[in-house]
Amino acid sequence: MKNKIILVMIFILINTNLYSDRFMMNCISPDRKNATFYKLDNTKKENKLFVRSMKGRWSDFCEQDIDINKKVKCFFKELSVIRLEEEIQQDLIIKSKKSISFSNYELIEKKEEYKKNENNASDGSVEKVFECRKIRL
Fold it and tell me: pLDDT per residue over 50-109, tens digit each?
């Protein structure tokens, strides 16, 4: 009888899906002033990435803002998400790239400023590496 119970338990453990389709992580900015939660949902046909601040609500990370001067594009590749954002101001073009990896649990944000009149002349580039940790679901 004990052997049957052990065999049934082993069979149940083997057949369960050990790979999850939902991932969550918490990232803290390098200056330790901002903390943000990220939740990746791969269960449906469309990949969705949700984000929320400590006291905010969940919102779609790839959704374009109401601001007309911003262009947002997102690219999903397995457990990585890249968000490209371009903001046009009076005399500047600010391009930012957020690269989120749920396999390595890391977030890298890179911002570049360009003058509107001069093409491909970057004023400065800032790269921030956020400290992230996995949250079990």
Answer: 999 888 899 888 886 666 778 889 998 888 999 999 888 888 888 999 999 998 899 999
Nearest to 62 by CA among 76, 52, 53, 73: 73
DSSP per-residue letters across 99-131? EEETTTTEEEEEEEEEESSSTT-EEEEEEEEEE
C-alpha to C-alpha distance for 10 and 12, rounded to whole angstroms: 5
* CA distance linking residue 111 with residue 15, whole number of Å: 46
pTM: 0.75
Give the Cα separation of 74 and 83 in Å (integer).
Answer: 4
* Tokens 């890391």 -> residue: 106
Q: Which long-range contacts (CB under 8 A, 24 or more apart) does 123-132 make?
A: 123/92, 128/29, 128/30, 129/30, 130/27, 130/28, 130/29, 130/30, 130/106, 131/27, 131/28, 131/30, 132/25, 132/26, 132/27, 132/28, 132/105, 132/106, 132/107
* 3-state helix, strand and coil shares in percent for the chain, rounded to the nearest 5: 10, 55, 35
